[in-house]
Amino acid sequence: MDFTTTFLGLNLKNPLIASASPLTSSVESIRRLEDNGIAAVIMHSLFEEEINHEIHQIDHFLHINSDSNAEGTSYLPSEVDFENLQADNYLEEIRRIKASVSLPLIASLNGISAGGWISYAKRLQEAGADALELNITYIPTSMEMEGYRVEQMYIDTVAQVAERIDIPLNVKMNAYFSNPANMAKRFVEAGAKGLTLFDNPTRVEVDLDLLSPLQRANITTSYNLSETLRWCAILYGRLSCSLCANTGIHSGEDVLKAIMSGADTTALASVLLTKGEGEIKQILSDMEEWMEKHEYESISQMKGSISLAHTDNPSVYERNSYMYALQHYRR
Amino acid sequence: MSQSDTITVDGNEAVALVAHKINEVIAIYPITPSSPMGEFSDLYSSKGQKNIFGSVPEVFELQSEGGASGTVHGALQAGSLTTTFTASQGLLLMIPNMYKIAGELSATVFHVAARSLAAQGLSIFGDHQDVMGVRQTGFALLASNSVQEAHDFALISQAATLRSRIPFLHFFDGFRTSHEVSRIEKLSDDVLKKMIDTGLVAAHRRRGLSPDHPVLRGTAQNPDVYFQGRESVNRYYQALPEILQGEMDRFSTLTGRSYHLFDYVGAADAERVIVLMGSGAEAVEESVNYLIERGESVGLIKVRLALPFDSEAFIAALPASVQAIGVLDRTKEPGSVGEPLYHDVVSVLFERGESLPFKMPRIVGGRYGLSSKEFTPTMIFAIYEELSKTSPKNHFTIGIDDDVTFTSLEYDHDLILENKDQFQAIFYGLGSDGTVGANKNTIKIIGTETDHYAQGYFVYDSKKSGSMTTSHLRFGTKPIRSSYLIQKADFVAVHQSVFLEKLDLLEIAKEGGIFLLNTPYPKEEVWRRLPRVTQERIIEKKLKFYAIDAYKVAHASNMGRRINTVMQTCFFAISGILSKEEAMAKIKGSIQKTYGSKGDVIVQMNYAAVDATLENLYEIDVPASADSLFELQATLKGDMSEFTREVIGKITAFKGDTLRVSQIPDDGTWPTGTTQYEKRNIAQEVPVWDADTCIQCNKCVSACPHSVIRSSVFDISFLKNAPAGFSAKGAKGKNFGENEVFNISVAIEDCTGCALCVEVCPAKNKSQTNLKAINMVPQMALREAGIAQWDFFLSLPKMDRGSLDPSNLKESQFLEPLFEFSGACPGCGETPYVKLASQLFGDRMVIANATGCSSIYGGNLPTTPWKKNDEGRGPAWSNSLFEDNAEFGLGFRLSIDAQNDRARGVLETLKPHLDGALVEEILSADQHEESQINAQRDRVEKLKYSLKTLDKEDAKTLLELADYLVKKSVWIMGGDGWAYDIGYGGLDHVLASGKNVNILVLDTQVYSNTGGQQSKATMTGAVAKFAAGGKVGVPKDLAAMAIAYENVYVAKVAMGANDTATIKAFVEAERYEGPSIIIAYSHCVAHGYDLKYGFDQQRRAVDSGLWPIFRFNPDKIKEGENPMTLDYKGPKIDVKDFMYRETRFKMVEKMNALSAGTFLQTAAHTAESLYARYQNLHAYYEPSSKEA
Predict the structure, then answer these.
(1) What range defines the domain where residue A147 resides?
(2) Interface test with A, best of B598, B822, B1013 (most A CBs within 10 A)
(3) How far apart are CA B672 and CA A90, in angstroms?
(4) Is residue A50 very low, low, confident or very high in pLDDT (cuts 50, 70, 90)?
(5) Could you tell me the CATH number of the domain that includes residue B1173?
């Protein structure tokens, strides 16, 4: 069975990519993914905000109580050498991973400032990443911040990074733009060579004992695949970029659905976290079984086959046929 | 001096730079002011920096200075070049080994930042008492007078010790030299290599013990040979002066800097000569030059080699014209005819007698500068003036007013030596605002990047929270010898406008000088916000006045409350030291140098602050006359004793130097309860209680490190006199009646603003969950009403102690704390425990306090937080030393028991003459519960009443002793440095004694007071001084060791994790009639996070399993119960969730991710094994399993 596909210009042996998660944080775990048949890996994200926060924090606490008392003129040794202050270890990890696995390695950057994006993006490229994924998540709380300004901020960031790196750039989009299709187009115009649909934001919960909101990782199920399928279908064939389906890929069937909707690849995280790396083999074998049963020969054969452009029922994607869907469910 | 080979460093760094390069083993132990030498050495080695022999010196921290000197001795005996750094009591602890080292002719140099000794009080400051206390050991004593000399002599002494085989004690003045930042010429490795003779190093090594050429040392000798052996070394001492001079001469050839055993400075025909050593010699040289310019024939001998004292060289150094010699000792030997240097000079001259090359001069001795007391030109002028008299005063003191034994010389307090070559700047800052750091940077910029000489010296007040720092900076084109504080400043910067409310800080400004103020007020308001005296000074001195809102600029630049870069930029912008452009370029260069390694974001943040500063700095137009309505406020407020007002008040107003000898307690006894008068108003924000949200749990009261939050329940009728804003709510709890109300009040003038109370408050506002039952609000607007509310609270009747259950958290917190408003850091993790003990047992406590943070916030002058209750009873407190605290406290116990025994004996004797039933009750009274103790107190009062009317000698005796019939609670307190390390031998012995003492270990897991050096309590993976790469080993389990005795009450507690168990531990420990030890987790500034989360971190420490909490109560064994109560349920969270919230752990990940991973694994393993250990103990002591 021919599972091969391309993503960001990279040739992949199958459409399964391990999405950024703790499973993609070390050589050992990435090697396990590779052994189980994953085609590419997106490394766990480098959080620019977190790095900057930590730098500020260390600087602050190394100095804040210094020189205020004759006996203790400082409380921690501040002149020590820092080797890993600016994610140096992450970069080193990329080098080590590149040296020990053969699959394509996509670095992932989660940040907020244009300056930070650029400097880290360049360093990730230098460290040997085959491609770079940007995860831009800005949650505006100001009522004065107009939507177009938020959108422009995203576009500017992508453009600035794309201009300064040579490796292909993938943008992990969120689904909450007024017009995701327009944003997808503008991302590509700004230099993105691939789009991941969509980012899976963290979950907000409330702890009634503490009377506090909590942030939790959002473990998905196949149920969460809906919007991804819709927008893969809508965008397929209309942009000169790769599409990666994300959020809710849990089975071989999910992969096939995403590919048929228009995705070039699919990204897996929740399924691997809950079921382990061994599930990759299961997904691949389920895919093979289905394809054999239905006499498909390759992935490329089915790509976009039920997209907006190629489906016999485009209204599913275009209209909010809620009443129909609900009735259908009741039946 | 060319810029390329100059460095700007302090004395400690200057010495460490050399010592680390020319030694192979460095054994250390922290003690102020020498600790940084060890810290620098540890840092150099942790970075892999090599010595001139190509190896990285082994730097090893010991458990005490005694241990360090033992290790030095051993390392020397095994042939390595070895050194140590110490001061004060630390040096005294080395004496036994110093005899051995000298007796065995072992080449070594001890570098000592000379410091006062603890006598009537401890002092961390500089004089020569410690050095003079080891004269008898056989070490040569070599004095450096400046930072440059300390750097140079560190090398010269090493060269000389190798050649002479006499060990050297190289010393320089603590703080004045050890902490003075100065521009010096750096010794190159080439010079170091040329000075250290490898042949002598090899000879030193060959003398080391080795099984390949075995010998025996350390024999026990008998009357037949010991004496001869002692005399056998004379020739080495005789040869030493010439050897040292030879090394000085070689050094001179290599560097151009020339030194002699005695250096004479002054007129060739000087008639009056001062002899002294140490930094004071610099001030004398400056004064001599000044006097010579004015035609006076004066001179100075700087003593370099104080011991062995070379008579010939000394006499040769004196000018033949000498008629009077004043020998100044920076030490005190009570009862002695004179101090050591005076003795030596007198002996030398009189021994030579007739054969002197000049007529026998008049010789007088004097004392100066004890505990870094200022030693200024006007004092020096007075000494020269005295020497011109036919009968000058002998054994004088200078710098104080001795109105008791009249030793002091008068001097002109107004005379100030004008030094036109220098630009002098003084800066008043707050401890945490970065002022000192900024000034150190300024000194480095000017000292390293211009042709100016530069000097910086920093003075700190004695508080750990809201302390004022004063930076003294001098710049000039000529070498700076002013080894004293600035007396007239060209530039005065006040970095906190609040200081002006109480202090006249512009008195020091020169006419026409510059005044820079950081003020929160807009330009047009700045002038009218100044106190009258400040306005008058500005006008009368014609000061140029600049202002900036530095906090606004810092905040906008993301720098939080650190205004260092902002104020430094202001200084350069308006001082005129450098052109503005050059200055800004150099500041930015320095920012890159300082913060480059901390990441570009930090560099950019500081750059932004520099640019924003220039836009926000403005000159204030000075009106022709003062119009302010504000007068300076007194530094103490309230109804106080005359002593407090006159003596303590002067110290708090920074006028302590003017106090006369007669005003100072002669035996070191000071009154308690004096912090209450300070009203420091240091908190920007203070907590305000919300009665409606409050659930009346009293957790905020228990957590408050400064005892500023108090609660009470009282009859509602009292409210009718309450001031505006004083609220109360119906008291919750079955013990309280319908008419009783609950209130929480805050001493907002005493609060440090740590916000720990807000974080521990469990009650959230039901409509707005970001508010709690106690919330921080700006203090200024509240001040007037807050003071009235606090005063009203204090006027309320105290709750009846007998009706409260002390083992219940809520009820215990109604008890009056007899420890309040200490100078501890904001958010301190130790003081909540100390306060709790004072609440529970304060009226019967005697406290032995080990040296450390708790002795500083508990007993550093001017004020003390320990106080009395309304009956006049309260904790009696004393600090002996660092190492002996357990034994010191045991002494209290033995003494109290002896007095109690005596009282009981006399009482028995007098029984027939007294109410027999009363006597019997007294003798058989059970005093475990507070109510029982109170009953006993009542009985004793009755007894005393009867005794007064009994005409018998024994009755008088018993009257004196009767109070000992009431239980006294002996508490032994200190930190982990004391309990785990230096004091462990004594602590262990006291635990084994079976005596009824209570030991409280305030465990911060580092030597907090001296700046965070690792102790054996330091957790794995924590970065600390002397563990710069993170602590590798596992912390010692002191509790398990104590449990092993089986008859010791042992508790390990963390108030933030389990306050109920903590209180039970205190109550049980005190009730236990034997030794008790409570090991209390104390969060600390040295852990590197915002301490308002201190209690949350305590909970995490326990939940991670790294701080197991439990109580082991031997009383329960007798009752057939399990003595072991585990107060936690084993590791519940990942150790990382505790550790990585603190910089001390987190920074390892940024330094060495591999080590960080290993540390996490070790910590997780430790957490599991500790739980297993204590579960096993619990299982072992389970009564059923024991029976089985």
Answers:
(1) 5-330
(2) B598
(3) 57
(4) confident
(5) 3.40.50.970
